[in-house]
Each structure stands twice: as structure tokens, then as C-alpha cells.
Write a structure and sequence with these properties.
about 525 residues, alpha+beta, Multidrug efflux transporter AcrB transmembrane fold, Hypothetical Protein, Haloacid Dehalogenase-like Hydrolase, Chain: A, domain 2, Gyrase A, domain 2, 3 domains, four-stranded antiparallel beta sheet, 15 helices, 19 strands
Length: about 525
């Protein structure tokens, strides 16, 4: 064997062997998509108005602080429509001062002054920014939650430029639990308790039925197996610690060995927590999750960087709560627009039909190549079988998901590989008709066909890249298998096929005829 052929044989064996090693066993290495494995398909809309309202409420508190700093008295500061703050009871002599505060400290707001009232509205650019951030944060939070839940190969992506998110979860066997995990907003706040009671009216009786400034009245989370105990808590509006201060959360046990959730805080959060607990020993600290008090333990000592949430949890509920706390809170509530469940029997039927289509295509192509190109057809058959091995091996290596459209991409890739061999073989035939020797015809055929094959493959790869970039989940699966198949085709139809011709011709000192 010629020395230049040795390294080509070694390289080919290495690549094909590597593909088989990556692929085997196929059942464990090839990840199946939703349409083949079964699972859930969800279409979720982010209620971006919530994000605007949260920002509006935060800015209203900041505005109140600014007015107090300037000794400006107003009747009330309350929310209007989405992204709107209304200041009532402004003294006419303070109009200019209020306007200056809004101009200097709230540049992203426009305002309209009427006698005794100032109306502030978010500027459109701020609204657009907050809505975009809400959708992007929701995507990241949902992805973190389904990843920690253990869903294999989930798809979480935005639908176009809307506030709608597509979620596909293959192999999910508990759809309702996953929906609950996704839906939970998981806003955690720790606030000092000023008063508690059995009803909202009891708590507000001493203040004339009005919630005092700087306070909130929060309901306790209903407990079906508990009687008595406070049903409402009056807490300070400003949280001592919130979810952004969390470093980690995990399931644990309380002093009675019941399921609970323990948490640790970031350095900044620990500093704030230590200050608040150190200054308020003997008071209650309400642990509030999504607007309901989970528990309100007494502060017995200064606490720095950790705490525990007790709430009569089941082990599963404690695990789910720790998961959503670790993954972060949603910036807005979610609305489920569509839900589809694909059963495993439907997926199995799709696999069988896809494999049947692939087998029929493979047999038809092999039969045509053997009949039309005779012994040279064996060369082409081996080349595109190697092509399939490399393609599936690459999919296993990159953890790509095989979908039903992906199977179509595999079949098209096989067709492109065969087409490349057809171009080469027809070139060889033309060279032989011109009277060239077999060796010269084979060399010229591969050389002249190379750029044609390269051009056709590159244009298809460019198209597939755009499909992957802008397509939905099913289209992405088709694009991935097509791109990998085309890359493998370039190697097998040019390098491997030429190597097989060289090996056959290298065993014979003189060749007068080629079966093609």
C-alpha cells in the first residue's frame, strides 16, 4: 500500500470508529424530541403589565421618600392605570417643586399637572424596555426551573417578537406538577410583623380601618389541617430581605423533623438580615411567598446568613419550593394559552413510520446505484452508510435532539450524499469517453466535481443556518440534522469514496476498464 494511503485509511477508520463509539448504544445516546418521545407542549404568555406595575409601585415609594425629604405634603400617592402614578392633594405653591423632582429624579416619566393633582406616566421607551426584560427573565427562569426538575432536552424559546413563550418538555410523566412549578411567581420577602389578628378588620380597628403609611396587611397561607392562629399580619411595606438576596435554597427539616426549606443569603443580604434581626429581637419576622405569609417565627437572636421556612410542607412541596427559590422569581404572572400532551404511543408510531420511510429510501437508493453504476455503486453505498454513522455520532456528541422533521433531514442528507457521488461518477464517465486512462479519469472526475459539490452543499448549509436561527423547535431539529448530514457528506463523498477507488486501483498494476 502506498504511504499516502496509509494515513487516509487510519483517519477514515478513526472517524468511523469514533462515530460508532459515540452512537452506541443508540437508545441511550440519541435524544428523542417531543413528537417522538411524548411529553408536553405549552404556549405561555407573559403578562408584561405586571412588570410595569411592579416598577410603578417601586417608583411610587421612591417618590414618596423624595417628597418627604423636601418637606412637601400631599394627600396621597397611588397607582393609576398600567404604568401610571397619581399624586393627589398637591398644594399649588408646591407645583414647581414637585415638577423639579420628577424632572431630575424620574427622567423616564412624563407628567401632567392639573390643579391639586399630578399624573405621571412611563415613557414608551421605558415601557418597551421593561416588557422586553420581563419576557427575557421569564424565559431564563422557566428554563432554570425545568432544568432543575430534570426534564431531558427541554425547549424554551420566545415566539417571534411577542410576549409568548413556547415550552416543550419531552418525557414528562407528571404534567400538572411541571405546570405548577412554571406558574409559581416565587416572590420571597421577609418583613417585620407589627400586628396580627384573625381578620383584616381586627388589625385595622385601631387605625380607623385604614392601613397606616409604610405598612401592608398580608393574609396567612390557608392551612387545611390547622385551626386558630392569625389569619392576617400587618407588616412593614419595605422588605428586610427579598428573593434577590438569596444565594441558595434546599429542602431540610424543622425542629420537629418535618419537611422545611432552608436558605442562605448573599453577603449583602446577610448584612441586612443581621442588622434587622439584631435590632428586633423578640419580634416576629413574616416569611412571605407570593403575597401570603408562610410562617412568622419569633426572632430569638441575631441571625446573619441563613434561615428556615416552615409551613407544614409535604416532602414534594418542600422540594418544589426550594427549586423555584433557587431558580429565581418570575418578573410577571403567566397565562397558559395552549397545552398539548403527546402520548408515548403516538411518539412510537412516529418513530416506526420515520424508520420505515428511511429504510425504503435507503433500499431504493442502494438499488438504483448498484443497477446504474454497477460495481462503482458499491463504493457509493458504503460512502453514504458511513455518512449516516458519522451524522448520528455527531448528533450524540452534540446532544442534539432527533425529531420527526429531523428524520426528514437525515433522509435528505442521504440524498445529498448520493447526489454528490452521482456528480463524481458522471464526471468520471465523461473523462473515460474522452479516451483518458482509468486512473486519470478517476482523478479528474473527483477534482472537477469538487467545487460543484462544495457550492451545492454550502448554499444548502447557509439556508439551513437561517432555518436554525429563526425557525421553531421542529424546524430547528430539521436544520441541525441537515447541516450535520451535509458536513458528513463532504467527507464521505469526496475523501472516503476517492480512498476506496485508490485502494482498489492500488492492488492492480494496470487497469484497462472500470465498472461504472
Amino acid at each position: 500500500m502506498r504511504r499516502d494511503l496509509v494515513w487516509k485509511v487510519v483517519l477514515t477508520v478513526f472517524i468511523i470508529g469514533g462515530g460508532l463509539a459515540l452512537l452506541w448504544p443508540p437508545k441511550d445516546k440519541i435524544k428523542l424530541g417531543l413528537d417522538l418521545k411524548g411529553g408536553m407542549h405549552l404556549v405561555i404568555q407573559v403578562q408584561t403589565d405586571d412588570a410595569l406595575n411592579v416598577h410603578r409601585d417601586q417608583e411610587a415609594i421612591r417618590l414618596d421618600d423624595k417628597l418627604k425629604e423636601e418637606a412637601i405634603t400631599v394627600k396621597s400617592i397611588h397607582a393609576g392605570d398600567v404604568g401610571q402614578i397619581i399624586i393627589d392633594g398637591v398644594d399649588p405653591k408646591d407645583d414647581m417643586l414637585v415638577s423639579n423632582i420628577i424632572k431630575n429624579d424620574f427622567p423616564s416619566w412624563k407628567y401632567l399637572t392639573n390643579p391639586g393633582t399630578v399624573t405621571m406616566d412611563m415613557k414608551p421607551e421605558l415601557q418597551t424596555q421593561l416588557r422586553e426584560e420581563a419576557v427575557n427573565q421569564a424565559i431564563e427562569t422557566i428554563r432554570n426551573r425545568v432544568d432543575e426538575f430534570g426534564v431531558a432536552e427541554p425547549l424554551v424559546q420566545r415566539q417571534g417578537f411577542s410576549s409568548t413563550i413556547i415550552v416543550q418538555l419531552p418525557g414528562v410523566d407528571d404534567p400538572q406538577r411541571v405546570k405548577d412549578l412554571i406558574r409559581v411567581t416565587a416572590v420571597l420577602e421577609l418583613k417585620l410583623v407589627e400586628k396580627s389578628g384573625s381578620s383584616r378588620e381586627d388589625i385595622l380597628a385601631s387605625s380607623g380601618g385604614i392601613v397606616p403609611d409604610g405598612m401592608d396587611v398580608i393574609p396567612a397561607k390557608p392551612r387545611g389541617d390547622e385551626k386558630g392562629g392569625p389569619a392576617y399580619y400587618m407588616v412593614r411595606k419595605v422588605a428586610a430581605v427579598n428573593g434577590r438576596d438569596l444565594r441558595n435554597a434546599k429542602r431540610s427539616s424543622d425542629q420537629y423533623n418535618l419537611p422545611a426549606v432552608s436558605f442562605t443569603l448573599t453577603p449583602d443580604g446577610a448584612t441586612k438580615f443581621a442588622k434587622v434581626t439584631g435590632e428586633n429581637i423578640g419580634k416576629q419576622l413574616a416569611i412571605i411567598l407570593d403575597g401570603q405569609v408562610e410562617s412568622a417565627p419569633r426572632i430569638n437572636a441575631r441571625i446573619e446568613d441563613s434561615g428556615i421556612i416552615e409551613g407544614n410542607f409535604t416532602p414534594e412541596a418542600a422540594e418544589d419550593l426550594s427549586l423555584v427559590l433557587r431558580s429565581g422569581s418570575l418578573p410577571a404572572s403567566l397565562r397558559f394559552l395552549e397545552e398539548r400532551t403527546v402520548g408515548p404511543s403516538l411518539g412510537l408510531d412516529s418513530i416506526q413510520k420515520g424508520l420505515r420511510a428511511f429504510s425504503v429510501a435507503l433500499i431504493g437508493v442502494i438499488g438504483f446505484m448498484l443497477v446504474y453504476y454497477k460495481k462503482a455503486g458499491i463504493n457509493a453505498t458504503i460512502a453514504f452508510l458511513f455518512n449516516t454513522i458519522i451524522l448520528l455520532g455527531c448528533m450524540a456528541y452534540f446532544h442534539a435532539t432527533l425529531t420527526l422533521p429531523g428524520i426528514a433531514g437525515v433522509i435528505l442528507g442521504v440524498g445529498m450524499a448520493v447526489d454528490a457521488n452521482v456528480l463524481v461518477f458522471e464526471r468520471i464517465r465523461e473523462e473515460l469517453r474522452m479516451g483518458k486512462t482509468v486512473r486519470s479519469a478517476v482523478a479528474a472526475g473527483f477534482t472537477k466535481a469538487f467545487w460543484t459539490i462544495f457550492d451545492t452543499h454550502m448554499t444548502t448549509v447557509i439556508s439551513a443556518t437561517f432555518l436554525f436561527q429563526f425557525g421553531s423547535g421542529a424546524v430547528k431539529g430539521y436544520a441541525v440534522t441537515l447541516i450535520l448530514g451535509l458536513a458528513a457528506s463532504m467527507f464521505t463523498s469526496i475523501f472516503v469514496s476517492r480512498l476506496m477507488f485508490d485502494l482498489v486501483m492500488g492492488t492492480k498494476p494496470k487497469i484497462d476498464k472500470l465498472s461504472i
